[in-house]
Specification:
Blueprint: H1 3-13, H2 21-50, H3 55-61, H4 63-87, H5 104-135, H6 150-181, H7 186-200, H8 208-224, H9 227-249, H10 262-285, E1 308-309, E2 312-313, H11 314-330
Antiparallel strand pairs: 1-2
Helix pairs in contact: 2-4, 2-6, 2-11, 3-4, 4-6, 5-9, 5-10, 6-7, 6-9, 7-8, 8-9
Length: 332
């Protein structure tokens, strides 16, 4: 065997350290379908086991069921990451998480951005959109764990704070966004990833917030190529939400968006706009100047013969249609 043939064989056997648009589409498909199917089966088995006929009642009255359902999606995300990477011979480090190349100042800035995002958008989401959807008869379909004791506060921080920040960032910014970037320019790839991120939440009332936050996280990932920063933004945004909810439940913080006066709607919209402006300025003058983690591509791309429309495989559109259908079903 010649030296050239040996090099070609070595290249084929070598794990790759990048994702493609095909990877992005299939990862989203599996992350959408698998938790939905497992959750549905687990729910009906649990209902048969307990004799409870209503899923909401089962969630509220059986904490073991509530905890498992809360963890389910994030655990599946992580399993998809491991299984997909192993199946298609992709290095686990390809998602871009790096502690070694992290800048402490950028890390602290990320924490601040996560907290700021909550306070900037809570009025818009809970007040403006929440009251609008309530007015037209659409109720929030979200079910949450108890959060009225210190013990439950820490459980929520772990299951609703840390788990989503790690697992969702690996899937959306680490795999899907990076795969889309091989085909699309930064803003287009960011917009598509943000849309998928919002669709995955399967809640029409909460659609706008993950859409905007997801877009901003993609921009941070584009400029830094380090998943640590997006994880920190996501984590402290979640933690702030959980802590504020705890303080409200304990009566320490009196914060209600029901029956808001007209001027409160204007303030809520302006607050969100101010936060967006602050992010744009920080992005332009700080984040864009951050040293990007450069990684040389290794391995070969597996040829894909699936038909594409607008640069995206058909499975992408099929998955997006399913996600939209689930959101519509949740309205009723």
């Amino acid at each position: 065997m010649s030296k050239q043939e040996l090099e070609e064989l070595k290249s084929k056997l070598q794990k790759r350290n990048f994702y493609t648009v095909n990877d992005s589409s299939w990862v989203f498909f599996w992350c959408l379908i698998v938790p939905f199917v497992i959750g549905l089966v687990f729910m009906y088995v649990s209902m048969s086991f307990t004799g409870v006929k209503d899923a909401t009642e089962l969630f509220k009255n059986h904490l073991w069921f509530a905890i498992i359902m809360t963890m389910l999606t994030e655990v599946v995300f992580f399993v998809v990451y491991l299984f997909y990477s192993k199946t298609y011979r992709i290095k686990l480090t390809s998602c871009g998480l790096s502690f070694k190349n992290a800048n402490p100042k950028m890390a602290f800035l990320s924490i601040g951005l996560g907290i700021l995002a909550f306070f900037g958008f809570v009025g818009l989401i809970e007040g403006v959109f929440g009251n609008f959807f309530s007015w037209i008869g659409v109720k929030s379909s979200g079910l949450h764990l108890p959060n009225d004791t210190i013990g439950w506060l820490f459980v929520n921080i772990l299951l609703v704070g840390f788990l989503p920040a790690i697992c969702e960032e690996i899937i959306f910014r680490g795999m899907i966004f990076k795969g889309l970037r091989r085909t699309f320019p930064p803003l287009v790839a960011s917009a598509i990833t943000a849309l998928l991120f919002a669709l995955m939440h399967q809640n029409i009332i909460q659609f706008v917030y993950p859409l905007v936050l997801g877009f901003a996280l993609c921009l941070v990932m584009e400029k830094t190529n380090n998943l640590l920063y997006t994880m920190l933004i996501h984590l402290f945004n979640n933690i702030t939400t959980i802590v504020v909810d705890f303080l409200i439940r304990k009566g320490i913080l009196n914060w209600s968006f029901a029956g808001m006066p007209w001027w409160a709607y204007i303030i809520s919209i302006l607050a969100a706009a101010v936060v967006v402006l602050i992010f744009v300025l920080i992005y332009k003058f700080v984040i864009s100047k951050e040293k990007k983690v450069e990684v040389e591509e290794e391995g070969e791309e597996i040829p894909s013969y699936s038909k594409k429309i607008g640069g995206l495989p058909l499975i992408f559109y099929f998955s997006a249609a399913i996600a939209i259908a689930i959101i519509v079903v949740n309205l009723f």
